[in-house]
Amino acid sequence: MTISMAGKRGLIMGVANERSIAWGIAKSLNEAGADLAFTYQGDQLRRRVEPLVTSIGKELIIEADVTSDASLDAAFAELKAQWGTIDFLVHAIAYSDKTELAGRFADTSRDNFLNSLNISCYSFIDVARRASDLMPEGGSLVTLTYMGSRSVIPFYNVMGVAKAALEAATRYLANDLGPRGIRVNAISPGPMKTLAGAAVTGARRTFKHAETNAPLRANATLSAVGGTAVWLCSDAGACTTGEIVHVDGGYHVLGMPRPETMPNPADAT
Fold it and tell me: How big is the CA angle at 111 (ends 49 and 101), to the nearest 5 degrees?
């Protein structure tokens, strides 16, 4: 079955460059026929995002700072003025001070904890509330998470806690917005070679380990994540909500690495 998004409009939040997961999702939605609008934060990101938006024949790009109520008010007011309604929203926004991802989680500072939870979790709640007002006929909200939410991942630290909160928020939003026909889901890709992923210490080792041990012996691709987003945003996902959909080659089902990839105790003697 070929999924068509023709006639549907949606907002993509969080494109950083051509390797970002948000951009992979945007390309897949565009190829399926969706009309897209994009947000950016600050002139530096605008310079990166605008050429990408133009390259797929789109032009609606709106400034939005998720830490500012005034900025979000203005962004969604502009979106309403331009389109009136939307059918879906993709939230791909997260942040933590990378210097605090390299040490112990126990040493997380109060300021970074609050900032990480604000940007990585509360922002989804905030934009979901605003976006749902533009979905009178129902719609779909999609965010991005990672398995560090439920398992300890080296160098992920407070981001694991933020993603756990995000996943809980996804379930609560699904319950709140379901009666209005609005579905809320999260996609959980495995390690990916993105700008955000590269900021995490040990990213290359994590990527290789997951690729070597995942049941499919592969990490997620941008097109695979994008295809999953198309399904969740389309009518094909009409009865799916409150879910954390893993797109990680099956890595999340493992309890331990494959035996042949584990250190041999004899080598330590």
Answer: 65
Known catalytic membership, residue 122: no
Told to judge if 156 belongs to the known catalytic residues of this protein, a careful annotator would answer: yes
Structural domain range at position 179:
9-250
Q: How many structural domains are present in the chain?
A: 1
Residue 260, domain member (yes or no): no
What residues does 186 pair with on adjacent strands?
143, 244
CA distances from 148 to 109, 112, 162, 217, 252 (A): 19, 17, 9, 20, 10
Residue 163 known to bind ligand = yes
Residue with tokens 């979905």: 135
66 assigned binding-site residue: yes
Active-site annotation holder among 95, 156, 172, 251: 156
User: Residue 101: phi, psi to the nearest 5?
Assistant: -90, -10
CATH number at residue 138: 3.40.50.720
Residue showing tokens 């969706």: 34
* pLDDT tens, position by position, 102-156: 889 999 999 999 999 999 999 999 999 999 999 999 999 999 999 999 999 999 9
Q: Kindly report, residue by residue over 45-86, the tens digit of the pLDDT.
A: 999 999 999 999 999 999 999 999 999 999 999 999 999 999
| Active-site residue (options: 40, 95, 122, 146) | 146
Output the CA torsion sign for 212, 24, 80, 115. positive
Q: Cβ distance 34 to 28 under 8 Å?
A: no
DSSP 212: H
3 state DSSP class of 62: strand
Domain contains 124: yes
Domain assignment present for residue 261? The answer is no
**What pTM did the predictor assign?**
0.93
Inside any domain, residue 265:
no
Known binding residue 41? Answer is yes
pLDDT at residue 269 tops 60: no
